[in-house]
Amino acid sequence: MNVDYWLGKWDRNEIGFHAAKVNKFLAAHIGALNLPAGARVFVPLCGKTRDMGWLLEQGFEVVGAELSELAIVQLFEDLALVPEIAELGDVKWYSGTGITVFVGDIFDVRGDMLGEIAAVYDRAALVALPEVVRADYVDHVARITGGAPQILLTFEYDQAAMTGPPFSITVAMVEALFAPQFEVQLLEDATVEGGFKGRIPAVEKAWVLRAARA
Ligand SMILES: C[S@@+](CC[C@H](N)C(=O)[O-])C[C@H]1O[C@@H](n2cnc3c(N)ncnc32)[C@H](O)[C@@H]1O
């Protein structure tokens, strides 16, 4: 799952991960973070998810990071916003009222570019990444957001039955990835209707991660 894999998916419009509706777990659980109006929410690997528009409607500022410029052109079209665009070295900056997206590799996005982040919303981001890069991704996002609390959505299923993405993330994996820095709490789990590919039973889980007390 390198850069070309994802850019190819967007070029060929193979974006089965893109949901037509706002994620039900986001709407149900963002309140767990007690965010004030105007808080800045970071959405890593954001694609053109409708969740960004929903977060804007709730009065949050939204900051995204996404590899595919095509995705972000479409996101701004969907939001009926004309972006300002600038080059920041390896990363492009798209900005409109209440929203900023860094277009490029998440590992090229630095904390000083993001500014203060109150919370992270991870839907289909961690689960999109192969195991070898997950720990680096988790550390990187925690570092550039100053350890901001997170709403994390994962899937769990028999990994032998299907190759990801999305990859199966077990409870043990969530704890190993996050527990040193975060207190990990499962908020809800729900069976994925019809499973994956219509035959592989899967459970979707919503977690809240809060910085562990020293
Ligand atoms: C499974 S999709 C999920 C998109 C979005 N979160 C959603 O819920 O629709 C994963 C996204 O991560 C992006 N991506 C993959 N690797 C990335 C990287 N290293 N840096 C930034 N974005 C990346 C892909 O282009 C793709 O849009």
Description:
With 214 residues, this protein is of the alpha/beta class. The protein has one domain (3-211): Vaccinia Virus protein VP39 (Rossmann fold), CATH 3.40.50. Helix content is 28%, strand content 28%. The protein contains seven helices and nine strands, in the order H-H-E-H-E-H-E-E-E-H-E-H-E-H-E-E. The protein has helices spanning 3-11, 24-29, 50-57, 69-78, 111-114, 131-144, 171-178; strands at residues 40-44, 61-66, 84-88, 91-96, 99-103, 119-122, 150-157, 182-191, 202-211. The chain has a nine-stranded mixed β-sheet with strand order 3-4-5-2-1-6-7-9-8, sandwiched between helices. Helix 3 (50-57) links the parallel strand 1 and strand 2. The longest helix has 14 residues, at 131-144. The termini are far apart. 36% of the residues are buried. The mean pLDDT is 96. The site of S-adenosylmethionine has 19 residues, from strand 2. S-adenosylmethionine is lined by residues 6, 17-18, 45-47, 49, 65-68, 71, 105-106, 123-125, 128, 165.
Major sheet: 9 strands, mixed
Please state roughly what percent of the residues sit in beta strands, choosing from under 5%, 5-15%, 15-25%, 25-35%, 35-45% or over 45%. Answer: 25-35%
Which CATH top level class fits? Answer: Alpha Beta
N- to C-terminal distance: 36 Å
Helix tally equals 7
- The number of domains: 1
Q: What's the β-strand tally?
A: 9
Rg over alpha carbons: 16 Å
**CATH homologous superfamily identity:** Vaccinia Virus protein VP39
Spell the H/E element sequence: HHEHEHEEEHEHEHEE
Structural class: alpha/beta
The stretches of 5 or more residues where confidence is low (pLDDT under 50) are none
The third-level CATH topology is Rossmann fold
Secondary-structure arrangement, i.e. CATH architecture: 3-Layer(aba) Sandwich
